[in-house]
Amino acid sequence: MDRELVLAVLVAVLCGGALVAAGWWPARMPIATCGRVLERRAWRRLWLPLVPAALLFAALCGWASGEPAAAERVPTALLVGALPFGAVVLRAVWRAGRSATSAHAEVAVGTVGLVRPRIIISPRAAMGLDAGALAAAVAHERAHMRHRDPLRLWLAQLGSDLCYPWPQAAVRFRCWRQALELARDEEARFSGIPGPDLAAAILASLKFHRAGAPVRAASMVGDATFVKDRIARLMQPLEPAESHGKSAAWVLGVGLAVVLALLFGTAFGERVVRSFLLVA
């Protein structure tokens, strides 16, 4: 059987099984007073369930790099077992494509563009903002641009969809999106934007979205309960920035684990895969 087909089946069965096993990871908003720290912690929690599948994928790629073009025969049971995860992948890819093509839906104030993010402001919404609120909205969106948040939103949706059908994945995605807005509010305020001006911009955007199209971009609004909490946070004095934590160490640790998995697959993958296929 072709090596590429065997690799695809093994990825579907093993990585899909890892996602199903890890997708139940509890979903809740992290605790932090600093918005940027909160966003980083929510971002890590969003991706943590995908780490086991990523390690298995790296090991399988290591195996494939040294495997002859004609690999072992895959049992029929594994081919059937690969179908559910294949459907999940197709669903995730379809949703990602739909999000990418509809990212320019009408918004009051938002940041769009996966490769070259830019700020868009609806003329109708701008008419409802005074000078201070408009400057606050632009400062908030500039923070989204600096961090390339439309691309991060697109990737986060794709990663969350790979954990389907676990509802915790959607909750983790929602928690991160809320933490993201709090972090960008905080950055705008540290740049000199008053909290009440930013609150006025959010309320004006909320009125616009109630009468407009659904949002598929990095924008200023969210569900009603979150908006209330966000407004209350903006009316409080701005607290000093906290340390961002050890995010670089976390990324390096995962990167090192992926490299080790790749090396393991290169050295021992053939033996492990052959044993697995015989058992299956």
Topology diagram in text:
Layout: H1 3-22, H2 35-47, H3 51-66, H4 76-101, E1 109-112, E2 118-121, H5 123-126, H6 131-146, H7 149-161, H8 167-190, H9 195-211, E3 218-219, H10 224-234, H11 247-279
Antiparallel strand pairs: 1-2, 1-3
Helix pairs in contact: 1-3, 1-4, 2-8, 3-11, 4-7, 6-8, 6-9, 7-8, 9-10
Describe this structure in words.
With 280 residues, the chain is mainly α. It has one domain (3-279). The chain is built from eleven helices and three strands, in the order ααααββαααααβαα. The chain has helices at 3-22, 35-47, 51-66, 76-101, 123-126, 131-146, 149-161, 167-190, 195-211, 224-234, 247-279; strands spanning 109-112, 118-121, 218-219. Strands 2-1-3 form a three-stranded antiparallel sheet. Helix 9 (195-211) runs antiparallel to helix 10 (224-234). It is elongated, with a radius of gyration of 22 Å. The two termini are 16 Å apart.
Mean pLDDT reading: 85
| Tally of DSSP β-strands | 3
Enumerate how many helices there are, as a single number: 11
Distance between the termini: 16 Å
Mass-distribution shape = elongated
The succession of helices and strands, N to C, reads HHHHEEHHHHHEHH
Quaternary state of this entry equals single chain
Low-confidence stretches: 211-216
Q: Main β-sheet, in a few words?
A: 3 strands, antiparallel
Name the structural class. Answer: mainly alpha
Q: Which range does the strand content fall in?
A: under 5%
Radius of gyration: 22 Å
Domain module count = 1
Helicity level: 55-70%
Q: Biggest sheet, strands in spatial order?
A: 2-1-3
